[in-house]
Amino acid sequence: MKIGIDRVGFATTSLFLDLKDLAVARGVDPNKYLIGIGQSEQAVIPPTQDIVTLATQAAAKFPKAELAQVSTLIVATESGIDNSKASAVYVKHLLGLDDFVRTVELKEACYSATAGLQFAKGLIVLNPNERILVIGSDIARYGLETGGEVTQGGGAVAMMVTANPRVMVFGDTNVAMTKDIMDFWRPLYRTEALVDGKFSTQVYIDFFQACWQRYRQLTGRTLADFEGFLFHLPFTKMGRKALASELGDREDEVASRYWNILAASQIYSRRVGNLYTGSLYLGLLSALNNGQLEAGNQLGLFSYGSGAEGEFYTGTLVAGFENFIDHPDKFLDQRRQVSVAEYEQLFNQQLGMKSEDITFDVSNDPAEFVLAGQTDHKRVYQRK
Ligand code: COA
């Protein structure tokens, strides 16, 4: 049975920061951000957006008739808004899904959307008629004036998983690996992550190599069997580092194909920043929209979550995939640019750990789904 991704939707906020402005404010050469890190813009998160509103916005792009058939909703996130209640329950409500639906939240840093897709595949093997909605939704927060600040961002990627999918069919062999490593974590008492940044980039590459080499051993397949690889992109340079670990200074047709696909996959991440769980899938969306890809092309996908877990798997593109994916260029072009001062103000206004009642002014947020505040320790969401 063919199982895979049937639709892809993407949402981010309507605000962005030009990283040249951030570089000037932080006294850094802009080329460090633009070239050294590979980021040019960053989504700025107003207090009226969180992982629930972003996840809902991404999935609300799907036809209502298809949403009405969803049997399981999985929200993957590492920036959850509650230590007990799953964000998927709020998303289910805002999307107006049927009450007879299974909802759950998954966590393992930036990796868990990939686990969600695998679990969805298992559910469809059990019942091919099921329609599983998997959403990776996150806000990447490292803190003002930290080393990770330039790699912040936020947004959500929603994927419908079905039998006979119309975007990408999952391959049969997956390689997942886990090791207990402290490269990035966020204790319960913090809203910003703690990260050993350089260490995390090395662990990422080690996991990519270990998963890919094991995949090769298991299947006998080589680079020549794929159109290219897609990588989790915490910042776009990370994908370049990972691919370079495999290609080295190889300069043949295969290598140039891989570099072209990587470049196409980096376009949206360069403008939005890190989506944590959604980043690999924003890369997929970017490659589908901007790469020279066609039906039958095979892609390798490397998912990585600090802590640490990696997974390498593959997919084959389906004819007409472009009709079932989001095309976010126009939305990204129409976002409002904010100054560094406004970004800092919005950063500090986020609900975070605040326990008091609060009402946010939602009139400036053009999004359909907004966080209007908090009453009696309960988040208040609104559909405009
Ligand atoms: N022009 C061009 N490139 C420049 C430059 C300039 N003026 N100044 C510096 N650079 C390059 C550096 O050579 C380096 O390149 P390299 O990584 O290829 O060696 C790159 O910019 C980053 O510089 P560095 O000094 O290493 O940056 P940093 O100490 O600020 O750390 C991160 C960068 C990514 C580690 C940091 O932003 C971080 O911790 N991010 C979050 C962690 C993360 O996302 N981890 C990923 C795994 S999930």
From TrEMBL:
Keywords: Acyltransferase, Transferase. It holds the Pfam family HMG_CoA_synt_C. Residues 3-163 form the Hydroxymethylglutaryl-coenzyme A synthase N-terminal domain. PANTHER family: 3-HYDROXY-3-METHYLGLUTARYL COENZYME A SYNTHASE (PTHR43323), HYDROXYMETHYLGLUTARYL-COA SYNTHASE (PTHR43323:SF2). One of its GO terms (molecular function) is hydroxymethylglutaryl-CoA synthase activity. It comes from Limosilactobacillus alvi. Belongs to the thiolase-like superfamily. HMG-CoA synthase family. Residues 179-245, 262-349 form the Hydroxymethylglutaryl-coenzyme A synthase C-terminal domain. It comes from the Bacteria. Coiled coil: none annotated. This is Hydroxymethylglutaryl-CoA synthase. Its EC number is 2.3.3.10.
